[in-house]
Amino acid sequence: MTLENKLGLTNFAELAREEEKLSKKKALALFENGILDQLEAGTFPALKEIHKYLFDEIYDFAGEIRSVNIAKGNFRFVPFMYLSAALESIEKMPQTTFDEIVEKYVEMNVAHPFREGNGRSTRIWLDHMFKKELQKVVDWTQINKEDYLLAMERSPIKDIEIKHLLKSALIEDTNNREVYKKGINHSYYYEGYATFKTKEL
Ligand SMILES: Nc1ncnc2c1ncn2[C@@H]1O[C@H](COP(=O)(O)OP(=O)(O)O)[C@@H](O)[C@H]1O
Ligand SMILES: [Mg+2]
């Protein structure tokens, strides 16, 4: 089962490959053309804009809040009935310290506002908050894939692991295109085909 897409692809692996290629290109463009700089850090409109930009050529739902319930593994993300209310309260969460920013990120992951592509768009949103608020960014190449996924699976219950991982990978070189590009390439590989395993309930 493949998600309906604008590319007309019905083959699972082919959609995964094209989606990755296109959205990576868009992720880099987001940095290069200065769009990121104009977004207001930590807001839902910023995340929406990022998601729309990454996936507009691929999915009709780019930038649109989902209207289905979804889960990964045993974890059910916020039911779509409560999503708008959840997003409103997440937006109000403080973001002045490292801990507050990660806590906000964890809550946004629990919300998982989009049908697909939450990981990729929300990591950019997180990095954007670090950059604007703390003048730091994440060097994703320093974060191991399995460690990251385990920490995210654990994060709704305990955020100590994701905090530790992110803290150890923060750097001060905030405007380096190579760091950003390598980070995108590295962190995309976090899920690979597994990204399609989000269950619709
Ligand atoms: N079991 C889980 N519980 C909570 N969050 C998870 C779990 N598994 C993965 N995640 C988070 O969800 C993200 C994947 O969401 P998804 O919507 O598929 O985004 P993408 O398609 O961009 O990878 C991961 O990057 C991770 O941050
Ligand atoms: Mg996915």
UniProtKB/TrEMBL annotation:
For this protein, the record's Gene3D superfamilies field holds: Fido-like domain
Give the first-level EC class, as a single word: transferase
What does the record give under GO molecular function?
AMPylase activity; ATP binding
Nucleotidyltransferase among the record's keywords? yes
**Residues making up the signal peptide according to the UniProt record:** none
| Gene Ontology annotations of biological process type | regulation of cell division
Q: What is its EC number?
A: 2.7.7.108
Q: Which reaction does it catalyse?
A: L-threonyl-[protein] + ATP = 3-O-(5'-adenylyl)-L-threonyl-[protein] + diphosphate; L-tyrosyl-[protein] + ATP = O-(5'-adenylyl)-L-tyrosyl-[protein] + diphosphate
Highest taxon, organism lineage: Bacteria
Keyword hit for Manganese: no
Record key words, sorted: ATP-binding, Nucleotide-binding, Nucleotidyltransferase, Transferase
Q: Using the record's annotation, list all stretches that form the Fido domain.
A: 42-171
Protein's UniProt name: protein adenylyltransferase
- Its source organism is Amedibacillus dolichus DSM 3991
